[in-house]
Amino acid sequence: MTQPINATQLSRRTKSSRDSCSHVLNELLIYELVACLNPAARCSRLYWLTSLGHRCREKLCPKSSIPKPIPNLTKAEWILYGAVCFSHRSAVIKTLHKPLQSAKIKRIATFLIPDLKLSANNVREVVQFLKTGGIVNTVYISGKAHPRYRLTKLGEQLKTLLLMADSGVVR
Question: Whole-model pTM?
Answer without folding.
Answer: 0.71
